[in-house]
Specification:
Shape: globular
CATH architecture: 2-Layer Sandwich
Distance between the termini: 30 Å
Number of strands: 4
Number of helices: 5
Number of domains: 1
Strand order of the largest sheet: 1-4-3-2
CATH class: Alpha Beta
Largest sheet: 4 strands, mixed
Strand content: 5-15%
CATH topology: GMP Synthetase, Chain A, domain 3
Amino acid sequence: MKRVNFNPDPNAAKSTLMEQFHQGNAPQDSSALSGIGSDADDELNPPSEADLRDRVIEALKTIYDPEIPVNIYDLGLIYRVEIKGSFAEVDMTLTTPGCPVAHSFPGLVERSVTLVPGIDGAAVELVWEPAWSQSNISEAARLELGLI
């Protein structure tokens, strides 16, 4: 799998869609993820890596592609979620290499993952191989988009 290191460019131009994403479609703090585990419960019963992985996936399902009304997990943009202790590693792609959010979207994903209770840090890798295709879209999302 070819990896591309994510180095956010603070001067990268943001589209109107990304500005809307920043304003309301991405979790701004951990309260937005309140249904995804709780810190109080974690103090008594630390979550397993499998539980943390499930929490991260639920958080990923709250992030929507700015151009397609489907969350990035069901859209098939997430290739790997691995938990090592309280650290999350995520490999993701975009629908095309020329996607206008290529510079900023992985950072938004990383921020959302780090807000998951029980996750202390995250790394998001933007990968281009295998290339994304419509076959990556979940059956539920295909139905929602009218593709089946």
